[in-house]
Amino acid sequence: MRTIGLIDIETRDGREAISVHLFRIRAGGFEYEKTIEYSPSTSSGIELADVAEFYLSLPVHLLNFRIMRFPFSDRQKLKDVIPFELDDLILGGSENIVFDSIVLGESDNNFDVLVAYTEKKTLREILTGLAATGIDPQVVTSLELQCIVTKGNGDIAASLMNPFSLAAEERIAAAKKELASHTLNLRTGPFAYTKDAEKIKKGFKVTAILALLLALLINADLALRFITARNEASSLRKQMRTIYVGLFPADKKITDETYQMKSHMKELKDREEVISGLNPLQFMLELSRRTVPGTKFDEINLDRESVTIKGEAAAMDSVDKVKTKLSEFMTDTTVSDVKTSVEGKIRFTIVAKVRSS
Q1: pLDDT tens digit sequence for 1-44
Q2: In terms of residue numbers, what domain contains 321?
């Protein structure tokens, strides 16, 4: 059974303390195992060597908050609108912060939304410090904020300014609840967790190459059936053998290159290293049908569930048109990292999710 750890940063007796709550992942949920006091300079890191996943909880004093009202509660719309609202409220604008939102409630057809944010510099320093010890948390949340939102009495703003302390048992209970459904996640935008996506991309590249070579081998095998001249058949077989040995040098016994290549492809699928859910060729076809004049794409990354596109446009309205066209066959389409280049072009990044079939 896998182990998952929640790194809990808190203020204890006026000093910063770091604990790691360890849970076993079982069919019925998460089973608490133990809590260890963590420090990169001690042997506690050895106890985390077998932990499969990490979450990170920030204390409330490292976060800033704004309570806003909107006529909608859709998370994607909130992500699009909140940066513009924060630009007028934060020194330096929303470019210097990373945020997430929590819908508190509804009244008079409007929604109260709690926006939690921290400076990118602060989060980068924390994640860099953890990375130096081999820890890369998938989610950045806050146990203390969870308890304030779910258990707080009266004015939430007052509770955020003067947060109540949590006992050890309460922190463990909050950690278990957070693993099941996190209150917020500040690992977004430039801080998004990418390890799994990179693994999938690598698997996709390997699979694409193997598929191409398999097609070549199959075609070569078909051609071999029609070659009657012994010398030509022998030469083609040698070429197939050379390609196969180059791909799988560890295979010493080669009897049928085509059959053995198919066997390797089946093993690769059994390890779930192949891409599923998004057909790259179909995506490129859909994208080519929705071109916008004056816009070009420099980079397109496909993974199991989403697409990331980086490009350049002549004007901002062209970026909006691209987003609209992508929304015709993708969902949760968002635009980020919009900048103006030295040539006066608009640089942008678009992230969208695969539409469920």
Answers
A1: 789 999 999 988 888 899 999 999 888 789 999 999 887 665 45
A2: 280-354
Query: What are the two backbone dihedrals, phi and then psi, of residue 82, each rounded to the nearest 5 degrees?
Result: -55, -40
- Residue 187 domain-assigned (yes or no): yes
Considering only the C-alpha atoms of the chain, give the largest distance between any 2 of them, rounded to a whole number of Å: 90
Q: Which residues are 312's β-sheet partners? A: 296, 347
Which CATH number goes with the domain that contains 329? 3.30.1360.100
Sequence-distant (≥ 6) Cβ neighbours of residue 214 within 8 angstroms:
261, 262, 265
Residue 275 falls inside a structural domain: no
Tell me the pTM.
0.55
Question: For residue 197, which amino acid is it?
Answer: A
Residue whose structure tokens are 């691209």: 322
Question: Three-state SS for 283?
Answer: helix
Q: Are 104 and 116 in contact (CB under 8 A)?
A: no
- The answer to whether residues 188 and 98 touch, using CB atoms and an 8 Å cutoff, is yes
pLDDT tens-digit profile of 82-99? 999 999 888 888 999 999
CB 297 within 8 A of CB 309: yes
Question: Which tokens belong to 157?
Answer: 């703003």
Q: Are the C-beta atoms of 335 and 319 separated by less than 8 Å?
A: yes
Within 8 A by CB and 6+ apart from 350, the residues are 308, 309, 310, 311, 319, 322, 323, 326, 333, 334, 335, 336
Q: Which residues contact 211 (CB under 8 A, 6 or more apart)?
A: 265
104 close to 126: Cβ distance less than 8 angstroms:
no
Collapsing DSSP to helix, strand or coil, 151 comes out as helix
Instruction: Report yes or no on 86 lying in a domain.
Output: yes
